[in-house]
């Protein structure tokens, strides 16, 4: 799950010409609105042609026409954010209801708690696990399988990022440093009693947030961080995405993929990297496979294979639901992560402060990579260990999963059977010793000393260093 696909973005006719992406969103909206009547007619025709009292619905030509209408409607519609659809889990030998609650909220993010209503409290420890979803085009629901795999053994929280086009301009900007602010605020909200799992892109801001907290001896640092398929150092085994970013440079992206949100969206006039442009890139990476999948859907509808058709709908309802990214966050991430490699070089900035990963010492570290990952190459995530030399050996681990690509690192059968159990064991090893006693964390205050109140980042000055008065902003 990279920060979007670059190759299919709008191109300049000649070097130095005015970018074509500025009015692109507005033209997209006009095209979508123009298709509304045709889309409504196609949907009505589908219902008419599938009605069992209509004799045509039992003929091959009727089924073919109904299938064609459904394909037209599905390929021209706008897909909304999918539901989590997680209502129960199996834990401690019992089926447990799950309630999804919002426990923390800011303009660009909500923190969701997947609260399990146990009838009998489990005897096995249930560590608190914060899963940080990527801000990379798809909604956090793409991690549904990840959440389902961790729920039986953990008290799970997930960052649910808000589509940038839905956030009014009055709420301010959202940059890479603001992302780090959000994470620090969430760690404060959880009082340090948690473990954090970063899936792909958030590996960088999670390490930044923890490094900043360590530099300030903040008592609310999490107990461990698990970085999965993250671009910590993209100089290691660079992929096609990494090479393309290097070749084109940040100004190309600024001119060609950034546009403004049109009316009537709440975030009108906000500069974004739009979701529909990202989706164009996602689809073009494997266009033949997507075309074949839709042809297969047509055949399944004509043949009456409802199960196969429903599987297609479920997958593409999720895959085609995309969100806009703020221009500030997108451009800063591309530049710092893929072009200048600022984090491994020790040059990345959080507001006015240099981020120093080599100061991390109280937070255990586990990295996970996929053997066939073509987004974050082998070694890019493992590089985090080199950046954190102060972490003791018994507080670090690395796992390379054979036979999986980028998606398989955090989802699928091998994740459930081979990766998730290793993560759970690592988390428990940082909670308890082999003799069952709690592991003492270096310099971690007692719970009563830590306090329960979260410092409100957003009641302070924009520069988050106001949280840390010992270091004056520069």
From TrEMBL:
Q: Which Pfam families does the record cross-reference, listed alphabetically?
A: PHB_depo_C
| Segments for region (Disordered) | 434-455
Q: Where is the composition biased (Basic and acidic residues)?
A: 434-446
Any signal peptide, and if so, which residues? none
Q: Where is the PHB de-polymerase C-terminal domain?
A: 229-429
Please indicate which superkingdom the organism of origin belongs to: Bacteria
The name of this protein is Polyhydroxyalkanoate depolymerase
């Amino acid at each position: 799950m990279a920060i979007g696909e670059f190759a299919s973005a709008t191109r300049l006719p000649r070097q130095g010409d005015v970018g074509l992406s500025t009015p692109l969103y507005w033209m997209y909206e006009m095209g979508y609105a123009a298709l509304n009547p045709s889309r409504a007619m196609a949907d009505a025709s589908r219902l008419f042609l599938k009605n069992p009292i209509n004799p045509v619905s039992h003929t091959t030509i009727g089924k073919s026409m109904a299938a064609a209408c459904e394909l037209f409607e599905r390929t021209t519609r706008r897909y909304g954010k999918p539901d989590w659809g997680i209502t129960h889990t199996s834990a401690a030998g019992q089926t447990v209801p799950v309630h999804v609650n919002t426990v923390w909220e800011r303009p660009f993010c909500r923190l969701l708690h997947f609260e399990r209503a146990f009838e009998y409290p489990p005897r096995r420890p249930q560590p608190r696990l914060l899963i940080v979803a990527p801000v990379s085009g798809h909604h956090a629901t793409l991690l549904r399988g990840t959440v389902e795999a961790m729920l039986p053994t953990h008290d799970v929280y997930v960052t649910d990022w808000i589509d940038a086009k839905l956030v009014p301009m009055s709420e301010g900007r959202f940059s890479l440093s603001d992302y780090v602010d959000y994470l620090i605020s969430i760690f404060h909200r959880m009082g340090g009693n948690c473990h954090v799992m970063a899936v792909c892109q958030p590996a960088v801001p999670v390490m930044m947030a923890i490094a900043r907290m360590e530099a300030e001896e903040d008592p609310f640092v999490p107990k461990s961080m698990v970085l999965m398929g993250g671009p910590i150092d993209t100089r290691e085994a660079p992929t096609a995405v990494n090479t393309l970013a290097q070749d084109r440079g940040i100004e190309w992206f600024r001119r060609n993929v950034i546009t403004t949100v049109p009316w009537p969206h709440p975030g009108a006039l906000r500069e974004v990297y739009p979701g529909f442009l990202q989706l164009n890139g996602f689809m073009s990476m494997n266009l033949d496979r997507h075309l074949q999948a839709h042809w297969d859907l047509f055949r399944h509808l004509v043949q009456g294979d409802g199960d196969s058709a429903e599987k297609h709908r479920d997958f593409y309802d999720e895959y085609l639901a995309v969100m806009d990214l703020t221009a500030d966050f997108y451009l800063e991430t591309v530049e710092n992560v893929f072009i200048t490699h600022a984090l491994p070089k020790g040059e990345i900035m959080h507001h006015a402060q240099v981020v120093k990963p080599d100061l991390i010492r109280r937070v255990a570290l586990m990295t996970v990579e996929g053997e066939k990952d073509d987004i974050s190459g082998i070694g890019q995530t493992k590089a985090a260990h080199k950046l954190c030399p102060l972490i003791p050996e018994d507080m670090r681990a690395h796992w390379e999963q054979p036979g999986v690509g980028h998606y398989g690192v955090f989802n699928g059968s091998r994740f459930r059977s081979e990766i998730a159990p290793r993560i759970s064991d690592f988390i428990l090893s940082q909670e308890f010793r082999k003799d069952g006693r709690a592991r003492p964390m270096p310099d971690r205050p007692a719970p009563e000393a830590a306090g329960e109140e979260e410092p409100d980042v957003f009641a302070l000055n924009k520069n988050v260093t106001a949280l840390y008065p010992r270091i004056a902003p520069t």
